[in-house]
Amino acid sequence: MLAMNYRGPLRVRIDHKPMPEILHPQDAIVRVTRSCICGSDLHLYNGSVPDTRVGMTFGHEFTGVVEQLGEEVEKLKIGDHVLVPFNIACGTCVFCQQGLYGNCHESNSQATAVGGIFGYSHTAGGYNGGQAEYVRVPYADVSPTVIPEGMDPDDAVLLTDVVPTGYQAAEMGGIQPGDTVVVFGAGPVGIMAARCAWLFGAGRVIVIDCVDYRLEFAREYAPCEAYDFRSLEDPVVFIKGTTESLGADVCIDAVGAEAAGSALQTVLGRKLLMQGGSATALHWAINSVKKGGIVSIVGVYGPIGTHIPIGNVVNKGITIRANQASVKRLLPRLIEHVQSGVLDPKALITHRIPLEDVSDAYRIFSAKLDDCIKPVLMPPSART
Known about the structure:
Number of helices: 11
Radius of gyration: 20 Å
CATH architecture of the largest domain: Alpha-Beta Complex
Number of strands: 17
Structural class: alpha/beta
Low-confidence stretches: none
């Protein structure tokens, strides 16, 4: 089969790889119909995530048709068109039972934090992902969800990560009616978080980024106020100034490990890899939120220590909430929002690129060329 093949930082290509096989009676083999490139994949692509091994196939956002089933799978049948959440969850461990599917204790049993994730290095279990023609899906009775009749597959593929992560970012913010919410990052997740902030009652939504076309997209899609931090002398001072010196009620870090805006953070976290990423956006969130406010983190950071102003967290009485989105828990509500027209995920998709051109797709997305917001890879069988 054709599959994306990681060859080292900034080097990916399409290759022929062996077909995946049923390795456990709860597995399924899925023929991929859509697979996205995520901003989190760029952390892998750029060499920022430990134990990303040469030969791995990325891709944690995908839909596909069930082609084979293990003998213990009961809830799916051959031919079902499913969306597959990025979390690999067993459904039975203590954390899955609490709805913390992103922290499954069985799918990534060697880790003490994150559960298994498709195509996201051996720190997340070493599972190959969906930027391929076929993929093995463990625990197939747990998270894979049959796409509702009439739903556009382009909407469905964004329900595997972007929509639930943006929604949970807003949910974790504990937004109250009339709150001012600031989202750092105008990538697909940040834009979705800004859009979802209104669903929880926000009275004002502000997005901070440094890419003009993404800011303009956010203004139209969210809709929201959007500012280029390069035009602001200090984003923290700006946010304080526009909130009567109090600060925002809720700040969301939707950037993570590769944030721009601080030379020191860039050198330590992106160049020398001496910490778990550049925490510039997290600094701004902590310092911009009001006393007693909430900082919600969905941006991805590495597992090693990161330089953040913990003293300000304590002295301001800030609540920090963070996690990988528990997609399975959120899907019923989000499917309803899509079907009713409250959310329009597919509007984020700007590029549909053949799987065979995966290296070009990564280059375009990474370099922010051609006003790219969200690229989707199309396997050959999905184009016929």
